[in-house]
Amino acid sequence: MAMIARTRLFALALAGAMASLVASAHGAIDMTTGIRYVVPSGTLADCSAKAKASLDAFLDDATESTTGSGSWTATGPAGGGATAAATVHCIALEKGYVVTFTCAAGSGNPYGVVDLCTDVAHKFSGKPTVALATPPPPPACGSLTNLVGKWVEGDKTFVMTVDYGLTGPDGVSGSWYLNGQTATITYYGDHVLTLSADGTHLNGRDYNLTRKC
Amino acid sequence: MRPPSIRYPRSFVSALAATAMLTALLGPSPARASIDMVAGARGTAVNASNDACSASANAALTTAMGHPAVEAGAGTGQWLGFGANDSNGNPTASAAIHCYPVGTGYVVTVTCATERGAGSETANALCARVEKAFATPAAGFKWQ
User: By Cβ atoms counted within 10 A, which residue in A76, A163, A193, B120 is the most buried?
Assistant: First the structure.
């Protein structure tokens, strides 16, 4: 009994330790309001079309909060991740419209909110934009430093992303962490796996995954 | 025979040692803050000044975020609020209110962003609080 209690207590404390490590992964959030344009001619639809295009130039999948609202939001960086976001509000005036820009980014984002907002606004107005710092490219297959990419076991596919997110075969989200060759997959509980020397396999009690190249 | 309960503290010591070891081994976790951002409601007042909007924006953000709001340039009507600091004192939520005069009134927009996983509040929930705190809306004011 005492051994069982000790084991449970140890497991509980260990889980707490892991949780505290995960919690410490969070960082600061930054936000800025960018340039505001007042356009004396044009419709709300014109503004919306340009808002979507300017957001999509730097982020992914700009969507309107409700159809016809003129408020557009996108998250990025483009091509993956969710460490930056921007919102463009189009407001119809009696003649023309006013458009505002708001940008937010979390730590770990490759570029700052001011640069992002300036570029989105300049794209909107047709001014030259500056190349934003690009996020680290997805690693080549067999990386030993991260688990980003697709992993398969039989007909099950797990997708791991640069922001330490994970999506399992049933669409449920989780997370991953890699320390040396020891990986912790949080997906219906924590699972400790070992990354193979060539970085192509993750093996453990619960899963045996192969990196899909 | 020593009662089992006396041994529990030892497991605590073991757990604490494991915690310290893990922390030392893993070090600070990589900070990749995933963002949840939404465009909140849009409000209109048919007969009120933009200064009134700014005053309400300032009050709403200060109340909702728990820290003084700042205007992004005096007189711009663009207000920012940061709050819900994490254990390191860094904000994990932010909101912006834009005021713009239209006719004899104004239009106000609310935008919110929170860090996913840092707390229980979503950007939508934050925006709902900010909108609720938008102080003393002018006559004829309505959220859309």
Answer: A76
SS (H, E, C) B41-75: EEEEECCCCHHHHHHHHHHHHHHHHCCCCEECCCC
What CATH number is associated with residue A199?
2.40.128
Q: What is the pLDDT of residues A143-171, one digit of tens each?
A: 777 888 899 999 899 999 887 888 898 88
Domains and CATH numbers, chain B: 35-143 (3.30.310)
Considering the entire predicted model, what is its pTM?
0.66
Q: What is the predicted ipTM?
A: 0.77
Q: Å from A54 to nearest chain B CA?
A: 16
From the list B29, B109, B113, the residue facing A21 with the nearest CB is B29
Average pLDDT along chain B: 80
Pick among B12, B35, B114 to test the A interface (most A CBs inside 10 A) = B35
